[in-house]
Protein 1
Amino acid sequence: MRKYIQKHYILFFLSSSIIYLYSCSKSDNNITTPSETNSLNLINSQTINSTPYKIETYIHTDSIIVGYNPIILKIKDTTTSTYITNATILFDPLMTANAGMHRHSGPVEQPIYASSNGGYTGAFMPIHGSTISYDNAGNYTGWTMRYAITINNITYDTVKYNFATKNIKINTQFFTSVAGNDGYTYYIALVTPQQASQKIGIQDLEVSIYRGDNHEALSFTPINNLTITNFYPYMPDMGHSSDNNTIPTNTTNGHYKGSVNFTMGGAWTLNFIKIMQNGSSLIDSTGLEIAF
Ligand SMILES: [Cu+2]
C-alpha cells in the first residue's frame, strides 16, 4: 500500500475515531464502477405533502459515490406543470449507525438555480461509503439526504431519502481526509476529472478543500486561503511522474484549479505537498488516487 495512504488511514483513525468503523469500504467484494453519463439520472422523486410541489433529484452517476457528487434538483408545480425557479434549498445530509450513536454529515455545496439546466445545482461529498441496513430493533444504518426547501416563504423539511453509496473503481480514491497542523481535520475531493473523463494527456484538474469544523463532523467550511506549494502526479507501478503539470490555485468556494498531465494509462496518485496557510504548512502531504 502506498505510503500516503497508510498515513491517511493512520491520521483518519487518530483524528476521526468516530468514523473509523466505516472507513474500509475499499475491501468490499462487489466493486462496480458507477456508470457516468452526460445526461442526468433521476435518483429520487417525491411530492411535498399537501402541496403541488414535486421534488426531483438528479445526479450524473447512477449512484452517489464517495467523492464529489453534483446534485441537481428540479421543483415542479404539478398544478401548472411549471418549474419553480425562486426556491431556496439547503442540503443537510446525515449518516447514522450504531442505533444513532454514530452521527455525522459530509461537506456540501448548497444549490443555486441555473436556467441552463432548469434546476438547482449543488454538491455533496459523503465522507465514507455505506450500505443501507436496519438492526433487529429497526434502527437505520446509512446515509440520509435531507432537504430544507423554502418556496414563497414557507420552509418544508419533509423531503428526505436514504441512499447507499456505490464503490468506485479499485485503486482509486476521489476523496480523502487528513489531519491539519492546526488540529482540525481537512477533507479533499477530486472535482475533475471524474472517472469517465480521465484519459491520457493534459487535463483540467480541480479539487475542493474543506475543514471539519468540529470533531463530530457535523459541519464543514470550504477553505479559500491556501497555497499548494507542490503538486505532482506519480505512477507507483512505474516509478515516474510527468512534466507540464500546473499546481492548482484557489478560485472560489474552496475550489482549486490547475492541470495534470497523464502521460499514460494506469494508476496515478495525485500528490499535494505543503499546503500553506498564512505562511505556515497546514497540511504537509496528502493525495488522491485515480486509475484509468
Ligand atoms: Cu459514518
Note: Residues 3-31+167-291 form a domain with the Immunoglobulin-like fold (CATH 2.60.40).
Protein 2
Amino acid sequence: MPYHRVLLTGAAGNLGRVLRERLAGRFPVLRLSDVAEMAPADPGEEVVRCDLADADAVTELCRDVDVILHFGGRSTEADWDTVLPANIIGAVNLWEAARKTGVKRIVFASSNHVIGLHSRSERIDHRAMAAPDCRYGLSKAFGEDLAALYAYKHGIAALCIRIGSSYAEPADARQLSTWMSFGDLVRMIDVGLTADYTYEIVYGVSDNSRTFWDNANAERLGYTPRDSADRFIPALAGKTTDDPIAERTQGGSFSSAEFTGDPDALP
Ligand SMILES: NC(=O)c1ccc[n+]([C@@H]2O[C@H](COP(=O)([O-])OP(=O)(O)OC[C@H]3O[C@@H](n4cnc5c(N)ncnc54)[C@H](O)[C@@H]3O)[C@@H](O)[C@H]2O)c1
C-alpha cells in the first residue's frame, strides 16, 4: 500500500483495539491515538494521547500522516455537552488538520444511526435521506457532510462507513440484520484504503440475509463480505423487545429512547 504513516483515532476503544491488533505490521508506521490511555507502542507503532476537541493538538497529531482511520469519538447516545466536543468539534478539528497537513484520505467510522429512523420494512441504500435517531446519529450525519465538503472542495477522499453493529458476535434479533464481523470490518477498511473514489457512503455490515440495507455501493467499490449473522438466527430471532418504536425502526432502542414524536409520521 502506498501509505507510510496511518493514523488510527479511537485506538483505546473496542474497535480501535481490534484494529490495532489486526492492522499490526501492515504499514511502516501505525500512529495510534485516543484521549484515553493506550498500551505502550510496539515496533512500527506510535502512541499519541490527544483530545479531538483540542484543535492545536489534532493538527500536530496529523503531521506526516498519509491516511486517517477515524474511529475516535462518542460511540453511543449522550447529552450535547458530550457529543458536541467529541464528534462535532472533534470532526471539524480532524478534517481541518488533515487539510492543513496534507492528508489525502480519511476512512470514517460513521453509523447506521444516521438513518436510524427509517422503517425496517424499507430497504434503503446509501442515497437514502438522512434520518438520525439521536444526537449521536446526528453528529455522524454531520461528520458525513463535513467529509463531503473536504472531499469535493479540498481533495481529501472520504469513505464513510455506516457501521451497523460490529462485535465479536451479534447479541439480539436486530443485530441479525446489522452485524458486521471484525473480519468484514477490516475488509471494508481495506476498500477504504485502496479503492479509487472521492467521496462515498457505504454500510458496514456483513452478508446477513436479514439486512436492512442495499449495499451495492460497497460491492461496486470492491467490498466482499465473508461472514454472516445467519448462523445465529435460531438462537437470536426471538430476542426482540416489547417496544414498538424500537422494533419498527432500523435504529432500534436508539430510536425509541426519549421518543416523543408521532409514530405515524416516521419516514
Ligand atoms: N462498535 C460498533 O458497532 C459501531 C457501530 C457504529 C459506529 N461505530 C463507530 O466506530 C467508532 C469506534 O466504535 P467503538 O465501538 O470502538 O467505540 P468506543 O467507545 O469503544 O471507542 C471510541 C474511542 O474514542 C475515544 N474518544 C472519545 N472521545 C474522544 C475525544 N474527545 N478525543 C479522542 N478520543 C476520544 C474513546 O476514549 C474511545 O476509546 C466510533 O466512532 C463509533 O461511533 C461503532
Note: Strands lie at 5-9, 29-34, 45-49, 67-70, 105-111, 157-163, 199-204.
